[in-house]
Amino acid sequence: MSNRDELVDCSDNSKGNGSPISAEDEKTDKRGAEETQDLKSVLVTSVLNLEELDVDLYRGTHHWVPRSQRLYGGQIVGQALVAAAKSVGDNLFAHSLHCYFVRAGDPKIPVLYQVDHIRDGQSFMVRSVRAIQHGQPILICQASFHKLQPSPLQHQFTMPVVPPPEGLLTVDQLIQLYLTNQPNVPEKLRQYLHKRLANEVPIEIKPIQPQLLFKPPAAEPRKLFWVRAQGHIGEGNMKLHCCVAAYVSDYTFLETALLPCTNYRAKFLASLDHSMWFHTTFRSDEWMLYECDSPWAANSRGLVQGRMWRRDGVLAVSCAQEGVFRVQPITETSRL
């Protein structure tokens, strides 16, 4: 675990406290940016793109559907923030959001987003968004926006020291490597992994310490991975980068609480609420380190916390989520 008691002065954001970035890494990043300059992220062109139906009323029709066949919670949070951001001026930026998931989403029909203006102040504006399907809310979101106000009061925790993303494999590459190197993979597991590879995800993930795909050992409820949106988004639009970060933040987040319990599998898992705090500028189409841990789980619920770090060691986003778990013991015949 990173030292929670160690605070650093981050008044100079150009100096990082995480893994060092070599000149070769910087060259690789620049080449990658040039190569993807014309490849717009699918998160921008479809997944987070909303149709305006009326004043403060929007419709989302493009859904990425995970293996659960329910709407992905991160997409609903991201689209709700898109709708809220459209109602504030260009000089205001999201600094926090708090959401409750109240019903499972249906991927077969569009989602309506209704925005209510709660408060318009000189420095802060608050919006309430209801995501609606079948005439009922599936998510309720409160989002707050503010004007940037510099302050001499600045501090943050220290970013964990981890290997840079250039030397790590993506989740898809790890699965392909496993299937190649393990000729005796059980057929049920092989089919499951091929389905995962076929289910395209609009974000890239590189785990720091990948789990074993077959009979993983119990581990502390903590994981670290590099993450970024696929494709190019570009600089300057912090509203959009916050919306993409909201989308990314929910991916595999809740599963952190399951890491110590490898003798059980989740037969039902769902997010109850989701909160985020946006601390500073960042780019969601560049690698960020996502640090996730679960300080508590009991009573069929679990709490997870997350921190997204820029590569220069600056803490960009903090997240928290509670979820409900229904688990059952794993037998040798059912274990993947």
Derived from helix and strand composition plus strand pairing, the structural class reads: alpha+beta
- Strand count, sense and closure of the main sheet? 12 strands, antiparallel
What portion of the residues fall into strands of 2 or more residues? 25-35%
- Give me the count of strands: 14
Structural account:
The chain is α+β, with helices and mostly antiparallel strands. 20% of the residues lie in helices and 34% in strands. It has six helices and 14 strands. The chain has helices at residues 23-35, 42-47, 73-85, 171-181, 187-198, 238-249; strands spanning 7-8, 51-54, 57-60, 93-101, 111-120, 124-133, 136-146, 156-157, 203-207, 222-229, 264-278, 288-298, 301-309, 315-329. The strands form two sheets. A twelve-stranded antiparallel β-sheet has the order 2-3-5-6-7-4-11-14-13-12-10-9, with helices on one face. It has a two-stranded antiparallel ribbon with strand order 1-8. A hairpin with a 2-residue loop joins strand 6 and strand 7. Helix 3 packs antiparallel against helix 6 and helix 4 runs antiparallel to helix 5 (187-198). The protein is globular. It starts with 6 loop residues before the first strand and ends in a 7-residue tail after the last strand. The relative contact order is 0.17.
